[in-house]
Design brief:
- With 446 residues, the protein is an alpha/beta fold.
- It folds into 3 domains: 6-200 and 281-326, NAD(P)-binding Rossmann-like Domain (Rossmann fold); 209-277, Ubiquitin activating enzymes (Uba3). Chain: B, domain 2 (Arc Repressor Mutant, subunit A), CATH 1.10.10; 341-436, Ubiquitin-activating enzyme E1, UFD domain (Structural Genomics Hypothetical 15.5 Kd Protein In mrcA-pckA Intergenic Region, Chain A).
- The chain contains 15 helices and 13 strands.
- The longest helix is centred in the middle third of the chain and has 20 residues, at 284-303.
């Protein structure tokens, strides 16, 4: 099929960007310059290159965005091919991000997509700060929480506790489950962030240990037995890493043995990943619909051509077709998108002592913490090379490491929570030093 001409390819986009209207944003100025600026200056990060991520890359490229990047840690599996349309049988085993970027660039001229084959936690915070908008195409609640915390970590508040506009990092989040899906706009400090509405996601199903060990009845029981019970029995305290393919393969093999013993069908590697990592299933048609909604909201934010969604759209295609928009309210004292947790510290407190306090803080309970101030790493718990490079800071006072500033914002990353609710997260702390006279009430003014 011959490639479409430039004018015909942008004709639908021009209807939104080249003419005024009653629903446009306050800064909207229609014209070809706006269309050109979108392609030249807007930088969009797509997080996830699976079923939803493939659709998002295609839709954003066709919506006039030219500078895209995509991050995903997974490789292509045979089971992906039925709904992740950018992939082919010969791509099995290759990184999703790299193949997805290549396929879209082959089909859409002029677009540049930089792929990143790694974990989202492996990137420095500065990496995320460079993007105009972050678009989420994830199947994991934990991954959403992490990116949400990263984006909200850039947010600054003025002396009236109002968000500083230039520090707002917009996010567009899409999610699907079977024939159901959602699209939402997150403007940190204005709309509710992911953590504000975490209750929207049902809790992960837990099974009694006696059922898993003695009377499993489903494939999920067998998988959880291998994951929760058998792993600890065999590996004697070694931490299970759900992102390690060898660990996941071991759980799958043990689950198959358990299932065969009790005559239970249905244990697959894909299901093992889903149960262990709490991955939400998806199908192609729902991905396409939700992606279209997310791409449109991204275009609205970047161009101001229309008011954005306010702020949560749900789609249900189980019986007929039903869509609804709900305006949820932001939690004012949210630990993630709020001004941050206030901590008043002694100027004599060392960085090591500060990290120890994070483990005992009732709102944090954070272990293995890495600490950053501005763009500077004060201490990195991992990887080993960075830990060694920053280890000498542990004996210095936090006051000195923060250049003897009376107050400031500190970002900490680590494992937080209790028991099976522990997960990797990022938290923003408002630190003030007692002897300098900064208190919680005048912290914002400082």
């Amino acid at each position: 099929m011959a490639a479409a001409s430039s004018s015909s390819r942008t004709s639908d986009l021009d209807k939104l960007l080249l003419r005024p209207g009653h629903l446009v944003g306050p800064t909207f100025e229609p014209g070809t310059q706006l269309r050109d600026d979108l392609g030249e200056y807007a930088r969009i990060l797509v997080v996830g290159a699976g079923g939803l991520g493939c659709e998002l890359l295609k839709d954003l490229a066709l919506s006039g965005f030219r500078n895209l990047e995509v991050i995903d840690m997974d490789t292509i599996e045979l089971s992906n091919l039925n709904r992740q349309f950018l992939f082919r049988p010969e791509d099995v085993g290759q990184p999703k991000a790299q193949v997805a970027a290549k396929r879209v660039m082959e089909r859409v001229s002029g677009v540049n997509i930089a792929p990143h084959f790694c974990r989202i936690e492996d990137k420095e915070l500065d990496f995320y700060s460079d993007f105009s908008i972050i678009v989420l195409g994830l199947d994991s609640i934990e991954a959403r929480s992490y990116i949400n915390a990263v984006a909200c970590g850039f947010l600054e508040y003025d002396s009236n506790d109002e968000p500083v506009e230039e520090t707002v990092k917009p996010m567009v989040d899409g999610g699907t489950e079977g024939f159901k899906g959602h699209a939402r706009v997150i403007l940190p400090g204005t709309t509710p962030c992911f953590e504000c509405t975490i209750w929207l996601f049902p809790p992960q199903v837990k099974f009694p240990l006696c059922t898993l060990a003695e009377t499993p009845r489903t494939a999920a029981h067998c998988i959880e037995y291998a994951h929760i019970i058998k792993w600890d029995e065999v590996h004697s305290g070694k931490s299970f890493d759900p992102d390690n393919p060898e660990h996941m393969q071991w759980v799958y093999s043990e689950a198959v043995k358990k299932a065969e013993l009790f005559g239970i069908p249905g244990v697959t590697y894909s299901l093992t990943q889903g149960v262990v990592k709490n991955i939400i299933p998806a199908i192609a048609s729902t991905n396409a619909i939700i992606s279209a909604a997310c791409a449109l909201e991204t275009l609205k934010i970047a161009s101001g051509c229309s008011k954005t969604l306010s702020n949560y759209l749900t789609y249900n295609g189980v019986e007929g077709l039903h869509t609804k928009v709900t305006e949820f309210v932001r939690v004012k004292d949210c630990l993630v998108c709020g001004p941050g947790i206030f901590m008043e510290l002694d100027t004599s407190l060392t960085l090591k002592e500060f990290i120890n306090q994070l483990e005992e803080h009732p709102k944090l309970l954070m272990s293995g913490a890495s600490v950053r101030v501005g763009g500077k790493n004060l201490y990195m718990a991992a990887p080993p090379l960075l830990e060694e490079m920053t280890r000498s800071n542990l004996g210095l006072t936090l006051y000195e490491l923060m250049d003897k500033s009376p107050a400031g914002v500190v970002h900490v990353t680590g494992m937080a929570g209790k028991g099976d609710k522990r997960q990797s997260c990022l938290r923003k702390l408002r630190v003030a030093f007692k002897a300098v006279g900064i208190t919680d009430t005048n912290m914002a003014a400082a």
